[in-house]
Amino acid sequence: QLQLQESGPGLVKPSETLSLTCTVSGGSISSTSYYWGWIRQPPGKGLEWIGIIYYDGSTYYNPSLNSRVTISVDTSKNHFSLKLSSVTAADTAMYYCARHLSAASGILIDYWGQGTLVTVSS
Amino acid sequence: QSVLTQPPSVSAAPGQKVTISCSGSSSRIENYYVSWYQQLPGTAPKLLIYDNNKRPSGIPDRFSGSKSGTSATLGITGLQTGDEADYYCGTWDSSMSAGPNWVFGGGTKLTVL
Predict the structure, then answer these.
(1) B56 touches chain A (CB under 8 A)
(2) Is beta strand A34-41 parallel, antiparallel or unpaired with respect to A48-53?
(3) Span A33-62, pLDDT tens digits
(4) Torsion of CA B52, A25, B103, B58, to 10 degrees
(5) Which of these, B30, B24, B17, lies nearest to B75 by C-alpha position?
(6) Cβ–Cβ contact B63 with A under 8 A
């Protein structure tokens, strides 16, 4: 049974860097069939895709966040991480890690973690 | 503002059928596969439909998907109170000049009256 577990600080100060880790269990992050990524949801609002990473380190990011986002992978620990710099209150959201299946039809999000709430406040 | 447009809300009575639309620019939906996600209150989204009309294992056949031109549609028959949730469409858009990325619709809140 695949499990994705987000971890990291629940409170970040404005202008600082938000850092989260997603630990994958029940599956290998080195699988060639999947990308691994992050999606967020501000309170009461819709979903916003942040970006994904492949086991070899190649990435795709949301153009609107590209200048502030870094996603990295550690295959030895079977986890991947998100860093979002220069945060503001607008970055307050539930952050989900998610598995993305790479198929002939394209990429689709097929499995989600439970999410972790990050609040940006001084 | 989402690049995929969904109605903010829909409602129907138990046992009835409801449809939720997802429309976008010609390059986004017409050429790519659409997925649908169900987000029950207080929980993470779950994959409901992929490749326009396929259901993952465990998703009942009351849920269906279709696509025509630049619009995709999620259909739910035999509505149950447990279907009350937010529903999101999404697609992988590899046509964007800024680089390929995933895009979501704005979400539709389903109320079962």
Answers:
(1) yes
(2) antiparallel
(3) 999 999 999 999 999 999 999 999 999 999
(4) 30
(5) B17
(6) no
